[in-house]
Amino acid sequence: MAAAADNYPRPGEYGANRIHEARRALKRAASLARLFAPMVGSPAYAALDAVDAARREVGRARDLDVLPEVLASLKCAPETRDILLRAIEVERGHVRGEHADVDFARIEVDLPAAAAAVADWDLRGDIEPLLQSLRLTYRAAKRRGRLAWASGDADDLHDLRRRVVDLAHQCALFETAWPSILSAFGGELHKLRQSLGAHNDLTVLGEFALSRRELSAEASEALAALVLHGRKPLERRAAAQFGRLFAERPGAFAKRIAAYLAHPQHKAGTSGGE
Q1: 147 and 49 in one domain?
Q2: Residues of the chain with pLDDT under 50
Q3: Domain range holding 67?
């Protein structure tokens, strides 16, 4: 949360890298706040409220920043591409203008204050609430994934991605117990996240194009067909990745993580380990 506060774009600081760094830090903070919520209670939810408020302010800016690259990946007609690039640039100007009017004084106070309050969280006691929280994250992702491929709905796939992001950040907290296994698992979660992210970016582009009156009906339909065609291999790849990562029952997954923590792996050359 402190990193997000440091990177959060102020008026006049609209570089894509700054926005993306802030959003990454905010996502990690939100994921960990959700993990600790059963143990900490209301302070974790207060932190999550501060993070979510900040994320909402930069979400649209991030989408518009990546759309030109997504558009370039499609073989659309040059005139369609030019119309959309101009429209994207106009919208970026609007969003950044609105962004400058956001109450930055509130965000600049709330994020650092919420980060400082984390130091007062009472983390004494059994680790079981964290393991149960991790189990719930895994279960929610597994259920959402099954629903997404049953429905074929892009919004369901995007919701799955949000849960995969949570699971990846939460598992990383336990990585030092068994780095070789949990680091590999985290790497595979990241690949699934990338597949789902690329799928969502195409969806956002398609929705943006459909909202543009400058495009003819024929051009909009042609672009929609390209978006659907581009999403198909991403859906197949994500389905295979999901099947590998979520083959366990949630309870078995949590027990496995608990076993890693109870019997941590030691590096060669350290005392008492192999």
Answers
A1: no
A2: 268-274
A3: 1-115
